TrEMBL record:
SUPFAM superfamilies reported in the protein's UniProt record: Plant invertase/pectin methylesterase inhibitor
The protein's name in its UniProt record: Pectinesterase inhibitor domain-containing protein
Signal peptide: 1-26
Gene3D superfamilies in the cross-refs: Invertase/pectin methylesterase inhibitor family protein
Organism: Sesamum alatum
Any matching Pfam family: PMEI
UniProt key word Disulfide bond: yes
Keyword tRNA processing tagged: no
Every Pectinesterase inhibitor domain range: 29-174
Amino acid sequence: MADCGTSFVFILVSIVFMSMTPTSTCQKLTDTEIKHLCSKTSNVGGCYKLLKSDHRTVNVDARGLAEVSVDLASNKANKTHSLLNSFVKATHDSRLKNIYKLCSSNYNDVIRDLKAIKNFLLSGAYKNIPSQVKDASEEIKQCKKVYSGATSDRAHIKKKNQEFELLISIVEVTSNNLNKN
């Protein structure tokens, strides 16, 4: 009799967990599907290489791929934000210091946007993601605009902005894919 009760509880718990999992995103993505998603970015090869270099994409579904893309973008944004802050402290040129501060503020907002995107992914509120992606993209455009006036030897910040633009476009494509399901 105890075995019957235990089995019943196990089955009930299994049903509850299965019903909580969205069926539209549980299917493992193939390399072809990942390449197709990357074809919607500005750099197909760079997108595919970035995603496939992360061990988490080996057996990932659509939501997992979106989570990986957000993590990659968050890591890049945090590193760039830290780098900009170190430039603010290191420079004595008030014009450059102001540029670094403005871009640092932009990246701070991007980090906030990416946290919101991650929360939307976790809660299943996929339809809220595009506006956050747009906000993050606008922040980087502002940084690029401000930074384009800099005549410093910090050309790698421009490169970091370009790298981040690819990452945010990957976030956009992977999250849009969730909205289609």
